[in-house]
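Hi V.,

You were right to ask for the full record rather than a summary. Here it is.
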Amino acid sequence: MGWLWAIIVGFVLGLIAKAIIPGKQHSPLWLTTIFGMLGAIVGNSIARAAGVESTSGIDWSRHAFQLIAAIIIVALGDMLYMATLGKRKQHHA
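Predicted structure:
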């Protein structure tokens, strides 16, 4: 069940990050989900380092760290994707 939740959270974080980032992102949905999963992991680590390990109720500050990390990772990951695979796909199309 842990992997299922990780995929769902990664999917949602990746989509929200794509919606927030201005312009069009070209990375495929599966890669966006992986970027979102990485954002959740990095955000949790940053939250833990900042002393926000767990709170009662909804953990808004931890979720904010996750979203910010996902935005950064999706943006950088999409740039890397376009610099490598994306340009090759555009030339072949």
